């Protein structure tokens, strides 16, 4: 098997994959949360690992930055490796006044300024949304753990350094909570492949208060988001096993 971007073979990757943007965050999760770990990919240094978390087989792999990169890796995971669920675990810049650094945001929907949907030749504007079962499960986990979590619309932007300095204000007035750079591509790819996706974000910057985390804090400090995603994967597997009885 294998692709130009992923050297994994059949069976190397679990049905649920956690996808941070940073491959070093993938390695951190593998090193600190998983047992019986095997590395299935090192192509382009986009590390991928499969291991066991609380009796559940789960994989974690970097997605890189931006929607083209997410589009490639998620498409291959869904179509080549028969992955069912992808949970993006990434960082985001906050618009919402009530969000603080390290808060968790679950992306119920993902607005975008990207042209990613043009490939589908749709007769209107597509609304990328999360899988409800993944969303509800993750929300329940975060609530039970008493994590600070908010659910709503996010923005997936193609532009990090935007020449138009007014764009954030316009998204904010529509109630968009925060901005990342991958969620819309993940949701659209999942919809096209008839698979499941969720974006879980940790606030790393507040774009209106000038607050931000360090690069090291982004790599290793998002433990609440990681634990929420891992426990969501466990509950998905347990529910699937119950349904099979």
CATH topology: Rossmann fold
Q: How far is the first residue's CA from the last residue's CA? A: 32 Å
Proportion of residues in extended strands: 25-35%
CA radius of gyration: 17 Å
Share of residues in helices: 25-40%
CATH architecture: 3-Layer(aba) Sandwich
Arithmetic mean of pLDDT = 96
Strand order of the largest sheet: 5-8-7-6-9
Structural class: alpha/beta
| Relevant CATH superfamily | Nucleoside phosphorylase domain
Q: Which H/E pattern describes the elements?
A: EHEEEHEEHEHEHEEHH
Low-confidence stretches: none
Blueprint of the fold:
Layout: E1 16-19, H1 23-33, E2 35-41, E3 48-53, E4 56-61, H2 67-79, E5 85-94, E6 104-112, H3 132-144, E7 149-156, H4 167-172, E8 178-180, H5 183-193, E9 196-206, E10 211-212, H6 215-220, H7 223-244
Parallel strand pairs: 1-4, 1-5, 5-9, 6-7, 7-8
Antiparallel strand pairs: 2-3, 3-4, 5-8, 6-9, 9-10
Overview of this structure, please?
This protein is α/β, with parallel strands linked by helices and 245 residues long. It has a single domain (16-244), classed as Nucleoside phosphorylase domain (Rossmann fold), CATH 3.40.50. Helix content is 33%, strand content 27%. It has seven helices and ten strands. The protein has helices spanning 23-33, 67-79, 132-144, 167-172, 183-193, 215-220, 223-244, and strands at residues 16-19, 35-41, 48-53, 56-61, 85-94, 104-112, 149-156, 178-180, 196-206, 211-212. Strands 5-8-7-6-9 form a five-stranded mixed beta barrel, surrounded by four helices. Helix 2 (67-79) packs parallel to helix 5 (183-193) and helix 3 (132-144) crosses helix 7. The longest helix is centred in the C-terminal third of the chain and has 22 residues, at 223-244. The protein is globular. The chain starts with 15 loop residues before the first strand and ends with a helix. The model has no long low-confidence stretch (mean pLDDT 96).
């Amino acid at each position: 098997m294998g692709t130009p971007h992923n050297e994994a073979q059949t069976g190397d990757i679990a049905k649920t994959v956690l996808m941070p943007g940073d491959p070093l965050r993938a390695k951190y999760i593998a090193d600190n949360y998983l047992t019986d770990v095997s590395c299935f990919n090192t192509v382009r240094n986009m590390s991928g690992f499969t291991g066991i978390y609380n009796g559940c087989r789960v994989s974690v792999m970097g997605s890189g930055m931006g929607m083209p990169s997410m589009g490639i890796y998620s498409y291959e995971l869904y179509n080549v490796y028969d992955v069912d669920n992808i949970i993006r675990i990434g960082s985001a810049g906050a618009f919402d006044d009530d969000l603080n650094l390290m808060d968790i945001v679950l992306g119920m929907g993902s607005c975008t300024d990207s042209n990613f949907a043009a490939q589908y030749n749709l007769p209107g504007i597509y609304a990328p949304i999360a899988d409800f079962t993944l969303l509800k499960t993750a929300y329940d986990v975060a609530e039970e753990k008493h994590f600070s979590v908010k659910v709503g619309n996010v923005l997936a932007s193609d532009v990090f350094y935007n020449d138009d300095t007014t764009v954030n204000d316009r998204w904010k007035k529509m109630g968009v909570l925060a901005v990342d750079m991958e969620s819309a591509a993940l949701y659209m790819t999942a919809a096209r492949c008839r698979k499941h996706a969720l974006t879980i974000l940790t606030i790393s910057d507040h774009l209106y208060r000038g607050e931000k985390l360090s690069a090291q804090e982004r790599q290793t400090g998002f433990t609440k988001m990681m634990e929420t995603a891992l426990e969501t994967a466990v509950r998905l597997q347990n529910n699937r096993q119950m349904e099979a009885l």
